[in-house]
Design goal:
Layout: H1 3-20, H2 27-34, H3 73-80, H4 96-102, H5 111-126, H6 130-135, H7 140-143, H8 151-160
Length: 176
Amino acid sequence: MRAGQGRAVIAFATMITLAACGGKGDPQLMNLRSGPGPDEFAIVPPKPLEMPENLSELPEPTPGGFNRTDRDPEAEAAIALGGRPSAAGGIPAADSALYGHAARFGVDRAIRSTLASEDLEWRRDNNGRILERLFNVNVYYKAYRKQRLDQQAELERWRALGVRNPSAPPRKQGEE
């Protein structure tokens, strides 16, 4: 091999190695490079301004207080769905017994972060993440394979018990 060819092979190998280290498609690496961007869902446009009928009857402004043009997304969603804004965020009386039973051992306000950290620990212990990083493969479903529910077998079990499943697809011809 000539010296020129050796340099070309080394340059080509270097270029391939650097391209492989680009982290293309990895959202965590992309955020490290560009920094966290704006959260477009945190921006709520205000209601249109209104001119009050009598300016002298306006309440005193309170710094950091409620503004009449501020939106209340939860109340607006309740109204849009045909409910009452006062019930938004509360527990309806019909569901109080269910909530009481579910919360009988206490309510963990940080349950989402707790579950996320436990999930990460489970995946680390049951399927090493080194292959995920090396081959850009997600082993999330593989880690939980033993715990998943076979939906077709479960549907057949319920059908055998005579329970109607209106949301399940009907049986195919000749399957019965």
